[in-house]
Design goal:
Layout (H helix, E strand, L loop, with lengths): L1 E6 L4 H9 L6 E4 L9 E7 L14 E4 L5 H4 L10 E2 L4 H20 L1 H9 L13 E5 L3 H12 L3 E6 L8 E5 L4 H5 L4 E4 L13 H6 L4 E5 L8 H9 L3 E6 L19 E3 L9 H16 L15
Parallel strand pairs: 1-2, 1-3, 3-4, 4-5, 6-7, 6-9, 7-8, 9-10, 10-11, 11-12
The structure holds NADPH dihydro-nicotinamide-adenine-dinucleotide phosphate and oxalic acid.
Oxalic acid binds next to loops.
């Protein structure tokens, strides 16, 4: 039996090294050097091509290398009935929380703008931006960790999710009908939703119109949460004052994309919370052992919920 690594836009050799550092690791193969497909009982995937998971008759586990699983669930030839797990870990939640706090501080304190002034040898002072109310769309593993760090730093935090939440200091909004209300007082709106059919293009003109004029958008969920032309419109009409985007519909972001040169858009290359290779290797081997001994898997995805 063997684990097959199928990673795009991530280093399969580094993951292999981390897996093999565990004495209980089974044989590991890296796609496309599959060997006998009958040997493969577990695949570790990230941004795989549709159809490639269909060739393994003994497949018993599909493990996502990251937290998001939209790329797995949208594969029309996904093998039926094979359990899917995702990466859930404190390293991921803590990094995301720190990144979002950093993005808000950078905006409030104008740190990037001062770097631009410096490039023009310009001595010019701006007032700190005062607003400290943040709405987080998605209060799951990452959203709730981010909400906690922000409340600890004196921010007023609202969260929106499917079900009601009870997190100290965080005002909970839930369900479709409370979405607009959740954002209308916020100076910052942060998207930490999973990409599903009901969240695709949720960051659109309708939502922007419900947001406080001049508020700032941070999208660290997925590129397809955002209706890109609606954001360009909202920035043009000053409905929003700016946006930090870490994720894009097409990654890497194409060279000719208008976001690159937009003065009100701050781009980071899908880096807000990278997978920790040692932790993901440990977690997948733990689940592999659970699979072999018939124990329940950790962090299993519910395909009906789509996240
Ligand atoms: P979780 O599954 O733990 O949390 C998802 C949250 O979204 C839950 O609170 C859920 O509500 C809420 N939600 C889902 N669908 C809806 C809906 N239709 N309406 C309202 N709320 C909804 O996910 P994680 O926190 O682990 O990760 C979130 C996403 O972050 C990932 O799917 C991925 O896309 C992105 N990500 C980005 C990274 C980056 O580097 N940019 C790194 C890692 C992840 P409820 O709690 O009620 O179920
Ligand atoms: C993830 C990511 O989903 O890195 O883990 O985007």
């Amino acid at each position: 039996m063997a684990i097959l690594i199928i990673l795009n836009q991530a280093d399969p050799y580094l993951l292999e090294k981390n897996l093999k550092s565990h004495p209980d690791c089974p044989e590991v193969r890296i796609y496309p050097d599959v060997g006998n497909p009958d040997d493969i009982d577990c695949v570790i995937v990230w941004k795989h091509q549709d159809g490639v998971l269909n060739d393994y008759p003994n497949l018993k586990l599909i493990a996502s290398y990251g937290a998001g699983v939209e790329n797995i669930l949208s594969d029309p030839s996904l093998p039926a009935g094979v359990p899917i797990t995702r990466f859930v870990d404190n390293t991921l939640s803590d990094q995301m929380a720190e990144f979002v706090l950093g993005a808000i501080l950078n905006h409030r304190l104008h740190l990037t703008r001062y770097r631009e002034f410096q490039a023009a040898s310009r001595w010019y002072c701006l007032d700190f931006i005062k607003g400290r109310t943040v709405t987080i769309l998605g209060l799951g593993e990452l959203g709730s960790a981010t909400a906690r760090l922000l409340t600890q730093n004196g921010y007023e935090v609202n969260g929106w999710s499917r079900s009601e939440k009870n997190i100290d200091g965080v005002k909970s909004y839930f369900g479709e009908e409370q979405l607009k209300r959740s954002v209308n007082e916020a100076d910052y709106v942060v998207c930490l939703l999973p990409l599903t059919p009901s969240t695709k293009h949720i960051l659109n003109n309708d939502l922007f119109d419900a947001m406080k004029k001049g508020s700032y958008l941070i999208n660290v969920g997925r590129g397809d949460h955002l209706a890109e032309n609606d954001l360009l419109d909202a920035l043009h009409h000053e409905t929003l004052s700016g946006a930090l985007l870490d994720v894009f519909s097409t990654e890497p972001l194409p060279q000719d994309h208008p976001f690159w040169r937009h003065p009100k858009i701050h781009i980071t290359p899908h880096i807000s919370s990278p997978t920790d290779k040692a932790q993901v290797a440990r977690q997948i081997l733990d689940n592999y052992a659970r699979l072999m001994s018939g124990k329940p898997l950790l962090n299993q995805v519910d395909p009906k919920r789509a996240y």
